[in-house]
Design goal:
Number of domains: 3
Helix content: over 70%
Length: 417
């Protein structure tokens, strides 16, 4: 093996993909037949998210040797990065067909099924991988994530203990341990573990995500929201809709009963309806609002990506405008200021969610939806309410169902028939 290969692998472990690409391109100019260097170049492109270049380079190698497991695995990883899960699944099954004892092929298939939302099937594949290779660290870490996703915390902790015995300083394992601590409500301990993981590998995405969740979980109300998110993630799309629609219908029934009730019962029922409405609203805006708080924290701002910062800032701006308008209304009793205040409170929902989908086309649809609500709302303010006010609030109501449909179809748990 050429000494450059070792040097490039070191650069890749350090995250210096651009430098690795330059070294490989220069090397291949002198040694154009170096197959391993060509593979390392394709892998470097993949790690730097240059997926088109990675696929082109890998497919050239694959065309001359179509049964090399490392090439098939790389092409499957590129498929995953491009959300082509069916293609990645086919490649994983092809690898298993080539060698039924290849543990990493089962790990790859397990990852694909996990990303598709088929957690139970993914866990079966990971169990097969661990039968072949009981110390496979990627399989053990994925088993932790899957066990956590379906609420099997004891099994997740057991896998974490196995990983810690193998490598007590592995940042991904430590991040998984931190998430288990967070699930148990041990926020302080989780923060310490995430800090330890990030001190070992500052770029570890799982540890960064966990640290951000732990920082927000210092607020008791977010801890409740965090547990609600975990509960919803275990439900199928059908059951998720049943919870959402069922809660809405229940609130409507309570409101109807309150209208025909009197005295203490009416007050209690109205209070319950208001509590449900506030809970629904907070479930939409608590994440971007706490991200806004984190963005002012010297540590928290390093954990947020540009997408999260943008949504947090827009939500904060919408809230600030709403507060100013409502204060203005209470001082002047000017009706249009009340309309503006209510509108911008509602606009916190699209402001804090429109970048949540991964795909640009879905983000654009949400952006257009939110823009239409804003236009209708501004028209309602100018004309003092009327049809435009009805359209803007119907738009906000519709946005919530449209967004839920989009996210539930992408991220809900699925069960194979």
């Amino acid at each position: 093996m050429h000494p450059l290969h070792f040097h490039v692998e070191t650069l890749l472990r350090q995250g210096k993909t651009d430098e690795a690409i330059k070294r490989l391109q220069s090397h291949l100019g002198e040694y154009p037949e170096d197959e391993h260097a060509k593979y390392l170049l394709a892998f470097s492109y993949y790690l730097s998210n240059k997926l088109h270049e990675a696929r082109t380079a890998a497919e050239v190698l694959f065309s001359s040797d179509p049964e090399q497991p490392h090439l098939i695995s790389l092409l499957a990883e590129i498929d995953i990065a491009e959300d082509k899960y069916d293609d990645a699944e086919s490649k994983a099954k092809f690898l298993i067909g080539l060698d039924p004892n290849f543990a990493n092929a089962f790990v790859l298939l397990g990852r694909v099924k996990y990303l598709q939302g088929y957690y139970d099937v993914a866990l079966q594949q990971i169990s097969k991988a661990l039968e072949l290779d009981p110390e496979n660290r990627e399989a053990l870490n994925l088993k932790v994530r899957l066990s956590d996703a379906i609420g099997q915390y004891d099994q997740a902790r057991e896998s974490i203990n196995e990983l810690l015995n193998l490598d007590p300083e592995n940042p991904t394992t430590l991040a998984n341990l931190g998430i288990q601590m967070l699930n148990e409500g041990k926020v302080t301990e989780a923060l310490e573990i995430f800090s330890r993981a990030l001190s070992i590998q500052p770029t570890n995405m799982l540890a960064r995500h966990g640290m951000m969740e732990a920082l927000k979980s210092r607020f008791w109300i977010y801890r409740l929201f965090y547990q609600y998110q975990k509960m919803m993630s275990r439900l199928s799309a059908k059951n998720s809709w049943m919870v959402i629609i069922g809660t809405y219908v229940f609130a409507r029934i309570l409101g109807g009963v309150a209208d025909v009730s009197e005295g203490t019962l009416q007050s209690v029922l109205n209070a319950l309806v208001i509590l449900i409405a506030i809970t629904f609203f907070l479930s939409w805006v608590i994440n971007p609002l706490l991200n806004l708080v984190l963005s002012k924290n010297k540590y928290g701002k390093l954990l947020l990506d540009d997408r999260e910062k943008k949504m947090a800032n827009l939500t904060g701006i919408s809230l600030l405008i709403a507060i100013i308008c409502l204060i203005g209304y209470f001082v002047t009793a000017y009706y249009r200021l009340l309309l503006a205040g209510l509108l911008f409170i509602g606009l916190m929902i699209p402001a804090g969610t429109w970048l949540n989908p991964d795909k640009e086309d879905k983000q654009q649809k949400l952006r257009n939806f939110g823009g239409a609500i804003l236009v209708a709302g501004m028209a309602a303010i100018v004309f003092g309410g009327g049809l435009f006010l009805v359209l803007s609030f119907l738009g906000l109501f519709g946005y919530q169902f449209y967004f839920n449909k989009m996210m539930i179809s992408d991220f809900s748990r699925k069960f194979e028939k």
